[in-house]
Amino acid sequence: MKNILVIGAGRSSHVLIEFLLANAEQFRWLVTVADAEPSAAARRINGHKHGLSVWLDVNKPNDRKDLIKRSDLVISLLPAQLHLKVAKDCLLLRKHLLTASYLSPDIESMHDVVQGSGLTFISELGVDPGIDHMSAMRLIEQIKGQGGDIFDFRSYTGGLVAPDSDDNPWHYKITWNPQNVVMAGQGTAQYLDQNKPRFVPGYRVFEHPRIVEVHGFGELEMYPNRDSLLYQTVYGLDNVTNMIRGTLRYPGFCSAWNALVKIGLTESFGMIHNTGGLTYRRLLEGFLPVGNGPLKSRLAQYLGVAVDNEIIHKIEWLGLLSSTSVDLSNGTAAEILLELLLRKWKMTGKDRDVVIMQHEIYYRKNHSDHLKVSTLIYEGESLKKTAMAKLVGWPLGVAAKLLMTGQLDYPGIHRPTNRRVYEPVLDGLQQLGVNFIESDGSEG
Amino acid sequence: MKNILVIGAGRSSHVLIEFLLANAEQFRWLVTVADAEPSAAARRINGHKHGLSVWLDVNKPNDRKDLIKRSDLVISLLPAQLHLKVAKDCLLLRKHLLTASYLSPDIESMHDVVQGSGLTFISELGVDPGIDHMSAMRLIEQIKGQGGDIFDFRSYTGGLVAPDSDDNPWHYKITWNPQNVVMAGQGTAQYLDQNKPRFVPGYRVFEHPRIVEVHGFGELEMYPNRDSLLYQTVYGLDNVTNMIRGTLRYPGFCSAWNALVKIGLTESFGMIHNTGGLTYRRLLEGFLPVGNGPLKSRLAQYLGVAVDNEIIHKIEWLGLLSSTSVDLSNGTAAEILLELLLRKWKMTGKDRDVVIMQHEIYYRKNHSDHLKVSTLIYEGESLKKTAMAKLVGWPLGVAAKLLMTGQLDYPGIHRPTNRRVYEPVLDGLQQLGVNFIESDGSEG
After folding, report:
1. DSSP alpha helices (H): ranges in A236-386?
2. How close is the nearest chain A Cα to the Cα of B270, in Å?
3. ipTM score of complex
4. pLDDT class for A444, splitting at 50, 70, 90?
5. B2-126+388-431: CATH number
């Protein structure tokens, strides 16, 4: 009997726990789900005979250690800043650890001693970060193995509403962490272009989206991520002259979101006072230069577009020109906007999501240039079984299964960028129906 | 014998501790200075027979309580987020508390029980926040007391380099917390204009500075603060139609700083990777649109100014067009810029600072409109005895003296906006040479 401890029973735990419980009988696992909210943990277990739900305040070291001590593997779904405590306990108590969060330098610095203890800690085992790393690395190492010399790497990921459920003028609904929606494009984006670093300040990130042709899906827009260059060395791409990682949106999204940025509605610093008495109309007006005439004309003029432009239509559709009261008593501009978006961009009824990922790798081989494209188009099943939830939960689940069945032995602290991790995890994902389609192309 | 405990021996403690020690003999005080750095505390006391320096890790509750228990008054100069712990201890152990930091809602919520215990806690007893509140409130209540009906309130504060020491093209040096320099203008600024709230996103805060004529000093530029409306109710100005609080700079500063914002160099999110290998020139180039021609011309073109414009000269003077390596191995754009500014805008040698404050209050009385202006121009003495250090330290020192000599009895949690505080503290400041000059004007 092996004990798997999942810490955190929030939204991202659903698919993972279902996967673990479905395998529990065959592999003789006990799956323990711990959360500060005991009813949330119980709901995840739902009476399963191989499951156990427990209450845990993760800030109480003794309770935390007691639970970890009794497990063979810990999967932490806690907010990123709490992982370090759990990682230290796992090292002390000699347990393996998996997370879907970004690997922090604090945790990374424990590599040698974790390796020496024969323990395997893997972070970034979700999607962006996670599946993006694994599928990119498989492709990169395949090209290199065949003698290709990579000079241009482009990788895009987007969590979107599925085409069938796309019924609002923004062509966007919130399919995952809502915070990410307003935080997107806050901070300097960077990428490598013709061997020179390019920096884009947050307030200009949505100004010039690139058009990306996603094979089997169609044209999408892409804006650059903050972290494009973070993985250059990790991916073994120190010699490329171009590297970009970006986020995908349906066409028309970026110019309209850019208008919200330009107005000032995405800013997450500075409390707006007395918002209780504010209407959306008055909020919008307060951001525009003083002027006369109808608000809609002033808005169009400020944005430099015609009053019947699609951007104005999108902003009006959100309700920002309405005399409705702002539904938040005090908040930053971004918080006020988010509260509105949570209502307007809500997934409801039969809505489904889709996760799109595409890698485009240009390489030189036999004195000519080639292009390899690898594309994932993965649609969700329902409001609960979203593509995003599966693509975050399954890599953790598959890696857990590999670890618990002795098929993954890779002591140390890792991202899933090594073949020993990405091969078996991608194979496991393929068995679950997560397939990348590869296509070749010769550059003109 | 009364015991006064000062927690924190950093830069802002210098003038305060000197003031307390200078009064210690006469009033029979023991002044204890506690800091995590014992040598810093010892330096402040410098062997004074009424002083005691102690080591304190403020996160150790027992050590903290031990010290607080033995004092009659606590003055906390800790970072703002640590005040709550100290405030709770002071309540528990029945001690008065003074700070120069912003009053947090957490602490404010303790008002009733602090008042019931007969204790006096006063926050915002420095300068901006502090002297600005006190001098504004004195003027507001004076005008109201004489039957004036205030409809427009403007208040400006600036910490600048003194005119004699103003020898760089930016007409600016760092006279206080360097962090504030790059954080200025991050977040939505807001003010009230013709009874309508006006919002300015951070990236546009420096775009349209107002010109302010400071009586006895000359023309300065003013950009709006984030918190203009935070004090509307506190100041009793709920019925005004215009209210703005702003920051003062020498003419020409705002348009040049706005250029840095527009380039993207002030952004405090998003690590710039491999900055170790970057030159300032390449950093700047990375932010500009791709193009040909000399970097300086491309910069001028991006900013929409001539290549010999004063803004380009200022940017060049900072070294941003030079091939010097960025002196920081990893950092956000704002951190890279700050590291540069700390060297270029350093106060050295005989440099002195000046603090400028001006309130402009428009009111109606006897059917006509009037203007009352109150101005403080306070120059520093030296690099160590800056105007800023005095104007932060003295209000705390004067309030401490009032409390310890029984001249200030005002139980509860307060800002210094009540006459019971501002009258005696402003009087004490006047005795130290801090004088506001008032002038009248009739609006045309």
Report:
1. 253-263, 280-287, 295-303, 310-318, 333-344
2. 5
3. 0.90
4. very low
5. 3.40.50.720
